[in-house]
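From the methods appendix. Each design record in this collection lists the tokenized structure first, followed by the designed amino acid sequence. Records were kept in a plain field format so they could be parsed without special tools. The example shown here is representative of the layout used throughout.

RECORD:
FOLD TOKENS (585 positions):
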């Protein structure tokens, strides 16, 4: 049954719940006057500082500042989602949990229908796996057994445009509108409806209660199309919040001490088969702050696996920025960088469980990574290097919640620079104005206008000819605008908040944030054309600059070689770029 739980019911449930009974069943309490106390279950301590106050039905730790109600305790200690915690208290009280329709959103009945349709789709895909020799052969070639395929409910979407529709055509309880709402069907611009997933290995994505909320589909081998295709956002599926494999990890492990975040579904499944059952995957996106909040609800140590190349290090940096606000005392974040050409799937199959666990044990603490990356290339023996490091590090330290970790980071900065945290913060405020003005110098009126459109509709870039995108991207090493375009081109699922966050703390970051908040005069439908015209002007401008530099160089030091180089720099013409929608894209 879906829908909101009335707040009045939650209030009544807490009123009839004895918090002492709930906590004492998990953490033995001792009477201390009118209250109860124990060693805090949320951090290590020798002297009890965890107090439970029956009169107020409240707990508080004077050591780590953890506090809340019986509901909060179940969420933090048992690692339950909010609804699960409410249902647990309701079972203890012997009452049913009522539901009501969400205001301004789909009703509980509509959500219940979606869960039902998705569950039926899972059974359909699983049945088709059994009849597809090609899909079974692919999974066997990847080293997967029937047992792990069963445990993760892996299935197969047949290679057809209307197989899911036909499968439910005789079922009067499933309408086309339900299949569209669940993300199983899609509709093109002409109004034609067809299967979203075709000829793909299907991985059901479950919420923490085990309900199917979406799917990830992987191509077999080198087939056309994106390697992974996820369900779209629906009333029950939000990509930036969910983690593939978390439900299975909770089922496999009585207590989770550590969670390993990997990139792909196959990585999670292969690791589980190898005996590493504590792996989860973000769904085609970098780990968000919501992901980290969920991860730390179940354990205190998170290890993120990244490729060892430049893209992997950019992903690590973004994950670090998203995680910093969640790093309360006791929580650890580490990064594991994989050898070139390897992923967790291939690595654990080649090296085995023990070697993979050893690599995890050697993972780099994320805070060490922060100082290492920001200090790279700086001469910390010089005052300007020390000041530069302080100006780079302090904005990140400020994101960390008050506590021991934040103080240790400030101490580390003082050791490296000789600056106290207060002095560094003063320098940050002074430098902030310089950073903001510098960001304006990095962008021209043309690139500023184009970025405004891209921040609003990043997907418009993918509608442009590949040749035009390549011409822009080749300037990425020395032009921040081209670097941003390259990032969008390589990450087609990115959005406005991700782009602003990606360059936060860098000179262009303030300008991106301003552009993201500023109104845009053009309708979304016109952004792509403006983008094409603007990028053609950008490419032409870069070509002119290159010719001017070559001409100046020739005049200063004439040579036949420089003359040939100048002659090779032909004026760029918009007509040399194929029309949008041509076969060259």
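DESIGN:
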């Amino acid at each position: 049954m879906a829908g909101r739980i009335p707040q009045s019911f939650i209030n009544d449930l807490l009123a009839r719940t004895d918090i002492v009974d709930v906590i004492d069943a998990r953490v033995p309490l001792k009477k201390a006057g009118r209250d109860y106390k124990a060693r805090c279950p949320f951090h290590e301590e020798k002297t009890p500082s965890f107090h439970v106050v029956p009169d107020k039905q409240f707990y508080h730790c004077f050591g780590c500042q953890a506090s809340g109600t019986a509901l909060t305790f179940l969420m933090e200690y048992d690692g339950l989602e909010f609804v699960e915690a409410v249902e647990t208290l309701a079972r203890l009280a012997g009452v049913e949990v009522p539901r009501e329709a969400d205001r301004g959103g789909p009703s509980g009945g509509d959500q219940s229908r979606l869960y039902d349709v998705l569950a039926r789709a899972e059974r359909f895909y699983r049945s088709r796996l059994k009849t597809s020799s090609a899909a079974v052969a692919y999974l066997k070639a990847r080293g997967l057994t029937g047992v792990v395929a069963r445990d993760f409910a892996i299935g197969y979407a047949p290679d057809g445009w209307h197989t899911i529709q036909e499968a439910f055509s005789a079922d009067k309880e499933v309408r086309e509108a339900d299949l569209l709402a669940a993300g199983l069907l899609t509709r093109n611009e002409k109004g034609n409806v067809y299967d979203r997933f075709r000829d793909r290995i299907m991985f059901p994505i479950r919420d923490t209660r085990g309900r199917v909320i979406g799917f990830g589909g992987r191509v077999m081998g080198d087939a056309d199309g994106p390697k992974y295709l996820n369900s779209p956002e629906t009333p029950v599926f939000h990509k930036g919040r969910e983690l593939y494999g978390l439900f299975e990890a909770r089922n496999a492990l009585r207590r989770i001490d550590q969670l390993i975040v990997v990139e792909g579904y196959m990585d999670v499944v292969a690791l589980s088969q190898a005996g590493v059952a504590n792996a989860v995957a973000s769904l085609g996106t970098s780990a968000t702050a919501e992901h980290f909040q969920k991860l730390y609800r179940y354990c205190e140590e998170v290890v993120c696996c990244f490729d060892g190349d430049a893209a992997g290090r950019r992903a690590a940096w973004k994950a670090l920025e998203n995680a910093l606000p969640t790093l309360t005392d006791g929580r650890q974040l580490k990064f594991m960088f994989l050898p070139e050409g390897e992923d967790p799937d291939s690595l654990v199959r080649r090296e085995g469980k023990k070697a993979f666990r050893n690599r995890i044990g050697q993972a780099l603490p994320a805070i060490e990574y922060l100082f290492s990356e920001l200090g790279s290339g700086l001469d910390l023996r010089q005052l300007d290097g020390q000041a530069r490091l302080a100006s780079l590090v302090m904005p990140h330290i400020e994101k960390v919640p008050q506590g021991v970790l934040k103080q240790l980071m400030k101490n580390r900065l003082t050791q490296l620079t000789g600056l106290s945290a207060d002095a560094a913060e003063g320098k940050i405020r002074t430098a902030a104005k310089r950073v903001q003005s510098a960001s304006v110098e990095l962008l021209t009126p043309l690139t500023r206008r184009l970025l405004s459109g891209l921040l609003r509709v990043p997907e418009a870039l993918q509608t442009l000819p590949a040749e035009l995108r390549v011409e822009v991207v080749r300037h990425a090493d020395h032009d921040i605008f081209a670097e941003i375009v390259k990032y969008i081109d390589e990450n087609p699922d990115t959005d406005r908040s991700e782009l602003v966050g990606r360059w936060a703390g860098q000179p262009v970051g303030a300008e991106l944030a301003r552009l993201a908040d500023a109104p845009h005069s053009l309708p979304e439908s016109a952004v792509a054309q403006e983008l094409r015209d603007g990028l053609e002007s950008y490419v032409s401008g870069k070509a002119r600059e290159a010719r001017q530099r070559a001409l100046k160089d020739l005049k200063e030091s004439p040579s036949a070689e420089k003359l040939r180089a100048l002659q090779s720099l032909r004026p760029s013409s918009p007509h040399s770029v194929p029309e949008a929608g041509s076969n060259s894209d």
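APPENDIX NOTE: The first strand starts at residue 30 and ends at 32.
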